[in-house]
């Protein structure tokens, strides 16, 4: 799923899934998405808002509109510089 395009529900627009954040228990919590493959404006999306359509091709769909992208929290990795 990482590195693939996900389509917004009822839209021709899409985002790229750059990463998936996993809890210590192994549960997928968030997807890190962006409008392009370039790093920068990455957003955090609850993983349960992503689904894979059944059938030939199995498109990945986000339960949100393209306008919701700007309202999603900006994602930044926590980096320890110790």
Give the strand line-up of the largest sheet: 4-3-2-1-6-5
Number of discrete helical segments = 0
Distance between the termini: 32 Å
Largest sheet: 6 strands, mixed
- Amount of helix: under 10%
Shape: globular
Pattern of helices and strands: EEEEEE
Number of strands: 6
Structure class = mainly beta
Mean pLDDT: 87
Written account of the structure:
This protein has no helices and six strands. The chain starts with a strand and ends in a 20-residue tail after the last strand. It is an all-beta fold and 82 residues long. The chain is globular and about 40 Å long. Strand 3 (28-34) and strand 4 form a beta hairpin. It has a six-stranded mixed sheet, with no helix packed on it.
In short:
The protein is mainly β and 82 residues long. The chain has no helices and six strands.
Task: Chart the SSEs and their pairings.
Layout: E1 5-8, E2 14-22, E3 28-34, E4 43-46, E5 50-52, E6 60-62
Parallel strand pairs: 1-6
Antiparallel strand pairs: 1-2, 2-3, 3-4, 5-6
Descriptors:
82 residues; six-stranded mixed sheet; mainly beta
